[in-house]
Amino acid sequence: MSEFILITGRTAEQGKALHKGKGSDEYRRATEYVGMSVSDKERLGIREGRHVRVRTAHGEAELEMREGDLPDGMIFVPMGPAANRLIGSETRGTGMPDSKGLTAEVELL
Amino acid sequence: MRMENVVCPFCGCLCDDIVVEVRDNAITAVKRACANGRSLFLNTHTEAKHPTVDGREVEWPEAIAAAVDHLTDAASPLIYGLSSTATEAQRKAIALADLLGASIDSTSSVCHGPTSIGIQNQGEPTCTLGEVKHRADMVIFWGCNPSEAHIRHFARYSVSAAGSLTPRGRKDRTVVAVDVRPTRSARGADIFLQLRPGSDYEVLTTLRALLKGVTLEVSEVGGVRVSRLAELLERMKCCRFGVIFFGMGVTQTGGKYLNITELLALVAELNAHTRFSAMAMRGHGNVAGADCTLTWQTGYPFAINFARGYPQYNPGEFTAVDMLARREADAALIIASDPVAHFPLLAADYLKHIPAIVLDPEANLTAQQARVVLPTAMYGVSAPGTAYRMDNVPLPLKQVVESPQPTDEQVLDWIIERVKTCSA
Amino acid sequence: MLGIINGAVYDPQNGIDGEVREVWVEDGKIVAGGGIKRAGAEIIDATGMVIMPGGVDIHSHIVGAKVNAGRKFRPEDHRDHVRSRTTVARSGSGYTVPSTFLTGYGYAEMGYTTVMEAATAPLVARHTHEELEDTPMVDKGAYICMGNNHFIMKCIRDGHPEKAREYVAWLLGATKGYAIKIVNPGGVENWKWGKNVGELDDEVIGFDVTPREIISTLAWINDELGLPHVPHIHCINLGRTGNARTTMETIDSLGGRRAHFCHLQFLSYGGEPGTGLRSAAAEVARAVNEHPNVTVDVGQVIFGEATTMTSDGPLEYRLHKLSGNKWLNDDVEGETGGGIVPMGYRRNNPVNAVQWLIGLELSLLIDDPWRVFLTTDHPNAGPFFCYPQVIKLLMDRDYRAEMFEGIHRRARKGALLPELDREYSLYEIAVVTRAGTARALGLKNKGHLGVGADADVTIYRKLDDKEAMFAKPHLVLKDGQVIVRDGGIVREHQGRTLYVAPPYDAGIEEDIRAHFADTYTISFDNYPVAPECLSRSEVIPCA
């Protein structure tokens, strides 16, 4: 297990896949993964394409691990149903849930 | 048939130079659109769809009656979404909320709602995108990633776009990216500031302090050397016309609207030195329109409730994520959006426990678990309408193909009419 | 068929000054009284009451991008001023920046039936018209900002005013606008460089034209096109000490061509920078008196909350720096700009007190009520709901004196107002709030009760307290239907959008297309507002 900061956000692939339908393979591929830096990946000994469990205080998701251009200590999950399992609904009176900068644990499956 | 100057309704860029070829009521080719826009136009469906009630296909009158029953039986109905529908429909949705005494919120509550709050605190020096194209010699992308989310923004408006004072396009500009990771957008920038996550507020405050001539005791803020921030600030002060585009990187983290308030204050203060503007990168194609219609009809841009007979505004109280997470809505009308796909699980899940009515061209994830599904035409593809670009310039969405489906506006009219008849 | 009988009619366009007369209405129009089939007609007995045509507001900021930005950023303006829905009216909120339904109802309840939106950037005219669709009850129109327009300035620079003329004709039709609006000509363009203009002959950066040339060209174009209204001018140097000089120079520069000068109060300042605000209302009033080609509206200050919002971008930045209040700015490509700053006017603030005095002095010193109209430049000097207060100030010198005592001592010292004991009559009030404004707008069917006029009629109870009288008419008719009774909306009604569509030489479109490709980030084809966007409209003919 290892602790990371989780960022969620839009990607071009996710945007394109929206129109194929959210049940489509393309959409799943575009949204159900977690990006991590090469050195973190190596440090944890995870092979590209392997699935990992990402857990936050709000929930967990099993996602395919992919290399990404990320700083060490940060992971990225595209916005979508998978990311939603990791984001809490507390908005601190703003309407906006904490969607970036959450503390997350990554565990090999 | 070839249609020119078609407006792509997908994102806040609302590119209006799209060329679409149509044969036998099907879109066969799309030119100039980005991958998102192409995907939108080429995945258009024009076959007839019946509305459904509890999974059964029904005729429209029965579907409308079921929808109205759920909405009028509810003590606290919530209308949500609006960002991918035309203003003509948004205005009807607000009329319905007024009539029902409902809550009404748009997707901006999970997007640029914090920006609206920041603007309410601080004001906003801004401009239209053409001013950026023609004048901006310094363009900063703060917490946003147009290469992924607003794909033609650089080419049409902000980076490579050539204008009267920027004839060489990219060469006539200094491009800065501020983000927590090196995104596709950051890689094309002249200057990239990589911040520690959650430190935008401190960095913005630092820039403001430096602008005021405060001497700082620290040498680093948010993972960036203060000297680098000071250098950037000097360049900002000396440019001819600067713009900060900003996105979810600042609205969704840490101080949220407090980040935006600082950003807008910085931009306002820069105007003592040179002309500087700020612009929110609005995500959905007509979320700016939703802000506009809600504001002109009620006075407020989102998070509104009509239960007392007049509009009340309270982010955190009437915003959709909060209302659903706290189980304060007992029926939901979801228009042109997919909260089940985009809301935190606790809030998204609750939609399974209350009657939900969905108006959408697609059977999205929310529709799949909704009691009443009302399939409508898609504005900008199979119905004409009006949408507002991220700089609030309104554009006429065109009808490119025909659809047997009614528009969101038409369906809302039917619902309103029936609500009025039932309560008469 | 409806007849209003036994009321005292004030219809200045037809010379009627309080005579008890009948007013007959049929199919939305005023019709002749003789030989009427009275049996079956609805009769309104207006005994003891005052009948006037519906009010016509010549300058107000009620709809569009700028107004809406003002609404959005001032929730504090709305929370305590709400309106609940009824079976015939939508709910809403807002005091200085009311939501659109509130605006329509508020005007109607005050007996106004036509309102002109004072400034629209052409690029966002579509937004103006969407909001006008949601502004019920009143007939309406929008002025189109042209004083910083790139195409026009290029035509002036290149010596082709005739091309500018064709362009203006095209532009008015494309934006479904009513009139040519000029705001701080050249100054708003210069603000995009962080600068402004200060003299009529200053240079507009990048265009080699001057404010003087912009004004004279647009005034010439207005005459060429035979537009029903005249160029509507917000002069350079608004709000600046000593600006009366350039205001009077601007009046002179017209060389006899007709024009309207808006919110003149803000442009009638004397004194030197650093020596405090002094009223130059007497000099400016004299200039207006001596130039019969000029009409004005006052922009009277109301003590209380206001929201300043104009296309005058550099002015709003100055107000932000002076007041420290939050500031909104919006530069519009190729056309104009603007800004918004909340403001309050306090009687014990010497500057605000002088501003208040200036408005009243102008109203009392300009002799001809047909040329000086009642406005508060809503919401810049005060909310339109306060027009009745202004009426009382004009009609009741004791009330004026009482209010005068309450303003800052420094403003009272040496003030002209105590010497001005003119009191407006009901007839003159009818002129400055409807008959004169309708005439200045070239609206032949408004502002009077002659046969053929639109049946927009207001019936007031005659009260001694003129503010109370004008705040709550007994009945208001729009297009012959009773829409307001004793201060409440009784019927839904949608007014018409009034616009002009002067013919133009289609050849200009090629030049405009080229201009679009160079200047705009939207395509030429997507710019015009289609007639279908206006649910009810009327084209007002050009001469």
Walk me through this protein's architecture.
The complex is a heterotrimer of chains A (109), B (424) and C (543). Chain A is an alpha/beta fold and 109 residues long. Chain A has one domain (2-108): Barwin-like endoglucanases (Beta Barrel), CATH 2.40.40.20. Chain A has four helices and six strands; from the N terminus they run βααβαβββαβ. In chain A, β3 and β4 form a beta hairpin. In chain A, 52% of the residues are buried. By secondary structure, chain B is of the alpha/beta class. In chain B, α3 (87-100) packs across α13, α4 packs across α12 and α9 (200-211) packs parallel to α12. In chain B, the strands form five sheets. In chain B, strands 5-4-20-19-18-6-7-16-17 form a nine-stranded mixed β-sheet. Chain B has a five-stranded parallel β-sheet with strand order 11-10-9-14-15. A three-stranded antiparallel β-sheet of chain B has the order 1-2-3. Chain B folds into two domains: 49-111 and 285-423, 3-Layer(aba) Sandwich (Rossmann fold), CATH 3.40.50; 113-280, Dimethylsulfoxide Reductase, domain 2. Chain B starts with a strand and ends with a helix. Chain C has one domain (54-447): TIM Barrel, CATH 3.20.20. In chain C, the strands form six sheets. In chain C, strands 1, 2, 3, 4, 5, 21, 22, 23 and 24 form a nine-stranded mixed β-sheet that branches. In chain C, a hairpin with a 7-residue loop joins β18 and β19 (339-345). Chain C is globular, with a radius of gyration of 22 Å. Chains B and C meet through α3, α4, β8, α5 and α13 of B and α1, α2, β7, β8 and α4 of C. β8 (123-127) of chain B pairs parallel with β18 of chain C.
